[in-house]
Amino acid sequence: MIQEHGRRPYAIVQLRQDNSKASMYNLVGFQTNLKFGEQKRVFSMIPGLETAEFIKYGVMHRNTYINSSKLLRETYQLKSNPNIYFAGQITGVEGYVESISSGMVASLNAINQFKAKKENIIFPENTVIGALAKYISTPNQKFQPMNANFGILPELKGEKIKDKKERYKMLADRSLAKF
Hints:
Oligomer: single chain
Order of helices and strands: EEHHEEHHH
Strand order of the largest sheet: 1-2
Distance between the termini: 43 Å
């Protein structure tokens, strides 16, 4: 899209409501090492934010996670002590839904263990929940946190589907069929 001035925009700033009164907004994804004064100067240059009052500034944060590929099973149990479960960001899953799924898998297996049920609950690797559990528990020298994405699912058998929307639908349908 070409703007009135004839130039194409190259960035978009996303604002997210940060209180119930809708009087405060958060700049989404602005982790920075800029000093607060410099952040005010730079962010005030964004059209529409020239007169904004900045209440909080961005800071860099570091995700802490264990080497799950060496330490955990697909059940999110510690390999060296099956009485210990991990879940959430510390396991190397990134994102809210991903953290919830790791907690669900860990809790279902902890309940089964408590009830002395012999079988573990392991979701099929054709599902995103199962693929994430497999990813974090498969030995990997360069283990890095992972978001849920279609790329961690096993490929479809047969011909390659170039249309991404169609391919993703087929992957989703296959996942649902596994349940």
